[in-house]
């Protein structure tokens, strides 16, 4: 297709895709999502105890998930709060902002949780005498003695530390501590009996220290020569750290999910940029360790990956991701259809513009051609500003573009398949920059040809319609019934 033929079409599409977007708005800082009312209330209570100065709310996400969030806050304030909380590792690294307008958010009520707990206690049988089974009537005025608490074994004392690095020079040790606190804010500094200074995290039980050493060392999150040290060998505290409180692995850990699904989830979280090949190579192991270190919810890799996949599923529901089977181009993708609406089909393009002023747009294209036509199309996408000032990756049979300006982020991918150039362009509002790469990854991962383009199917469709008409006429002649086509 020649550029001069496409230009009027795509210029008009661009005007449709980029409406003005208001910058002043209230948003929520969304930190996680749960299923089930009890799990939601417990999670909300936990978050409220951690961020007492921020209001905690809940709101539905999709059919069965409920999000836990902070706010509402003005967007600028929320961005600053979220950045600070992420830096302090108070909230997950994949926390994101959700516009508050139109969300049926419910403020978290801590007193309601306490009332529910009290009600559950009040439901216990009253006045029972454990010694002889006497009723309330025979023991009026007598307060029964409380049943003895079962004796629980004492948990192992937290008296072990993870030693990360050691230095003879105090200034080098202080500099290293500052670096480590950027990713592991619980770290402290000790002067060991031999006079060396060591950066360490703890205390843990001996079992917990061993589990977290293996989890974090496996992918390079902490040095390979990190080790577990008993408190008796640590010497004296120079700079106090904070107790990590990281949990133990479950007694019966689940099986690791399929590695390709793990890689997709890690890519969504921003820890993995390699191929989705289903192989557990060094990059994949490093990404798993990075996720373990970032969340620090469990030292068990399989459990951590399942939790990550749950967060991704909840995000997909919130973004309204569904399968789009485009009849005009014959292409199929997973796309945020709650934010898009079909505008029109033109030449090789199927154009989806913004829905409800979302600022998003998606263009699918499919046309005959080869390498030159693909490169021409990439140049046209750039010239029209769909992907502004892009970074270009042009290969043999593939092209990728990514760029941004003050209004939008653009991503595009195209390929040559069976004599056709086919691909997509995503336009996403810059105010929601965190979600742009995730949406693009979902589209790229799901992009496929589900059927030939409508133009190639047209002759077959016409023949099928004519055959149907002839069959109906024959049926009328034989039965005497009226012909519904007349």
What does this structure look like?
- The protein has 486 residues and is an alpha+beta fold.
- Helix content is 36%, strand content 26%.
- The protein is built from twelve helices and 20 strands.
- A seven-stranded antiparallel β-sheet has the order 13-14-15-19-18-17-16, sandwiched between helices.
- β18 (408-417) and β19 (420-429) form a beta hairpin.
- α7 (259-269) crosses α9 (301-319) and α8 (282-295) crosses α9 (301-319).
- The radius of gyration is 30 Å and the shape is globular.
- 33% of the residues are buried.
- Mean pLDDT is 82; it is low at 1-23, 117-142 and 461-486.
Mean pLDDT: 82
Main sheet: strand order: 13-14-15-19-18-17-16
Rounded to an integer in angstroms, the radius of gyration calculated over CA atoms is 30 Å
Termini gap: 41 Å
How many helices? The count is: 12
What is the strand content?
25-35%
- SS-based class: alpha+beta
Gross morphology is: globular
- Helix fraction, binned, reads 25-40%
Show the helix and strand layout:
Blueprint: H1 3-17, E1 26-34, H2 37-50, E2 56-61, E3 65-74, H3 75-87, E4 96-99, E5 106-107, H4 110-122, E6 160-167, H5 170-183, E7 188-191, E8 197-204, H6 206-217, E9 227-230, E10 236-239, H7 259-269, H8 282-295, H9 301-319, E11 321-325, E12 331-336, E13 340-346, E14 349-354, E15 361-368, H10 371-383, E16 391-394, E17 398-404, E18 408-417, E19 420-429, H11 436-446, E20 448-449, H12 454-479
Antiparallel strand pairs: 1-3, 1-4, 2-3, 2-5, 6-8, 6-9, 7-8, 7-10, 11-12, 12-20, 13-14, 14-15, 15-19, 16-17, 17-18, 18-19
Helix pairs in contact: 7-9, 8-9
